[in-house]
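DM from R.C. (forwarded with permission)

"hey, sorry to bug you on a friday — could you get me a structure for this? deadline for the figure draft is monday and I only need the backbone to look sensible"
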Amino acid sequence: MRSLCQRLVDHPWFDRTIIGLILFNALLLGLETIPALAEGYGAWLDWANWLIIAAFVLEAAVKITAVAPRWRRYFGDGWNVFDFTVVLLSLVPSTGETAMIARLARLLRVMRLISAIPELRVIVTTLLRSLPQIGHIFLLMGIVFYIYAVAGYQLFHAHDPEHWGNLPIALLTLFRVVTLEDWTDVMYTAMELHPAMWIYFVSFVVLGTFVIINLFIAVVLNNLEQAKAERLEEMTVPPSRDELLRELRVTQQALARLQKQIGDNGSNSEDRPWS
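My reply, with the result:
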C-alpha cells in the first residue's frame, strides 16, 4: 500500500491534478459571488465543494501513507502542515458559529496553489527569509520618516495645515510623497512659502523612494538566490534506502525478464533445424 501511494505521489499528474482542483475551487468561489448562479445552482455548487474537500482529504491520506511510518517526513515540512491545516479547517461545518471559519478555509484552499507550485514556494520562502533584514530597513525608513515629518511640521504647518497640521498628518503626507502619488502638488504648495523648499521634497524622494526601495530589492534578490540554491540542493539529495531498494527490485525484475528472453531465444535456436 505504501509503495503504491509513493508511486502516486511521485507521478507528475498527481501534482497537476491537485493544481487543477485548486483552480476549480477558486472558480467555484468566484461563481458563488454571482447571485443568480448562487440561487439557481447553489446545491450543485455545494456538492462540488464537498467533492473537492473529499479529494483534498484523499490527497493528504495518500501523502501520509506514502511516508509511513516516518511521519516526520510529512509533518516536518511546513508546506505539508499548511495543507493539512487547510484540509482540517475545510471539515468545519459551514453553519452556526463556525460558518466564518468554514468560509475562511475555502479561501485558504486557493492559497494552496502556492504550496502546490514549487516556483511559488521559492518566492514565499524568499520573502519569509527576508523579513529580518526587511525589519532593519523598516527601522531605517521609520527614522527617516520621523525626521522629515518633524521637519515638515516645523516648516509648513502654519502655511499648509491640511498636509502638515500635526505629526500623524505629516507622516501620511510623507507616505503620499514616497509613493509618488501627486507629491508635486504638495511640493508646489510648500514652494509658495519659499522657492528653495523643493530641496526638502526632492531629497526625501531620492532617499525614501530610490535608496530604500532599492535596498528592499537587493535584500529580496539576495535571499532569492539563496532559496534557489537550497531548492537545487533539495533536488539533488541522495536517494533514501527505500528508494534504492525499490530501484534495485525493479532492476532485478528487468534482468530476470531479460534472462528469460535470452533463454527462450536460445531454446528456439537449438530446436530450429540446420539448413
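R.C.: lifesaver. Residues 145 and 185 are 19 Å apart (CA to CA).
me: no worries. The chain has two domains: 2-116, 122-235.
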